[in-house]
Amino acid sequence: MIDLDTPRMFDLSGRVAIVTGAGSGIGQCIALGFAQMGADVACLDRRTDGGVQATLDMIAATGRRAIGLAADVTDPEAMNRAVAETESQLGPLSIALNAAGIANANPAEEMGVDQYQTLMDINLKGVFLSCQAEARAMIRNGGGSIINIASMSGVIVNRGLMQAHYNASKAGVIHMSKSLAMEWVDRNIRVNSISPGYTATPMNTRPEMVHQTREFESQTPMQRMASVQEMVGPAVFLASQASSYCTGVDLLVDGGFCCW
Ligand code: NAP
């Protein structure tokens, strides 16, 4: 007999998760997905008066507990407080998914230092500070799973998009995740990243992107953009025991984009 219970491998019952960027797009949908799989979820975003309230309402309908946290991921003290609040209200943290991020574009020769620095602060330093606060709790708790949302832009250069800073930030997230995975491998903390391809979210409806949607679709082997729902399965996999031997992995979820 083989001792195997495959459905239970994906179960997140009794687990406590924190999701950054939980008020919109990919983070919002994954926060709901974690709750549907049984986790209680702390939903962190810059503000809690907008999209986070909708996330909390959707999670409440699943019967799981959820709290909203207003914090800026670039502020280390705010991130430490957010993790402390999560644990005092929901219990010991063992899952973290870091989706907070921004995107914008500008030709490199015209990009101001402020535009470069603000994006790097949120997309790279913000992920580091999130991981740091989350891992401090997980080290105390005996382990956990951290998942960082990178991008296929950390692997390829998007044709026609002038976003050197964004692409560099995402390459940084992928390699930082691998580095943290190795630092914490003996603390029972797994660190992986998910690299989405073009995904239909508010990030992709910003003005300079509108005319490019068709091009995104035609450049993608599957001939369409991803829906946010399609990021949930990979996130549940990496959060759960189903991925117990995966650490330092970058999971491309890109409709085949990086094959071409
Ligand atoms: P989104 O809908 O704009 O959601 C991002 C969320 O992060 C927003 O609620 C945003 O709040 C929040 N956020 C931004 N800066 C923050 C900060 N300093 N502190 C706390 N929260 C902050 O974007 P998305 O498309 O879901 O993107 C989620 C992640 O996936 C990002 O890391 C993005 O780079 C990555 N990604 C997206 C795509 C895609 O095609 N959409 C593809 C690959 C990777 P505000 O609205 O207040 O800024």
CATH class, please? Alpha Beta
Give the biggest sheet: 7 strands, parallel
Q: CATH-wise, what's the superfamily?
A: NAD(P)-binding Rossmann-like Domain
Helix content: 40-55%
The small molecules bound here are:
NADP nicotinamide-adenine-dinucleotide phosphate
> What is the element string, with H for helices and E for strands?
HEHEHEHEHEHEHHE
Number of strands: 7
Task: Report on this structure.
With 260 residues, the chain is of the alpha/beta class. The protein has one domain: 3-Layer(aba) Sandwich (Rossmann fold), CATH 3.40.50. The protein contains 8 helices and 7 strands, in the order H-E-H-E-H-E-H-E-H-E-H-E-H-H-E. The radius of gyration is 18 Å and the shape is globular. It starts with 5 loop residues before the first helix and ends in a 7-residue tail after the last strand. The model has no long low-confidence stretch (mean pLDDT 97).
